[in-house]
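Hi,

Apologies if this is the wrong queue. I'm a grad student, and the batch job for Antitoxin from Photorhabdus hindustanensis produced an output file that my downstream script rejects. I'm not sure whether the problem is my script or the file. Here is the sequence I used:
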Amino acid sequence: MESKKINYDKVNDDHKPILITHQNGKPAITLSLEDFQTYEETAYLMRVLWKNPQIGKLCECYELSGHLNVFKTR
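Support response: The file is valid. Your script probably expects a header line. Output copied below for reference.
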């Protein structure tokens, strides 16, 4: 069985994770460090918002007014 080589430049340039599968193991993904750090930061901010209802309400008001979209992606 021939394994495919991952083009890491493409992972960084396209900002799309690559799914890695194999017959006898769990699947995994490869993504750029920049994207991983973005996901980590977003998860942290969402935890902070979840724990503080006042901040969550403020963000919701800004989002409804069209000045902020917390969930907007690239």
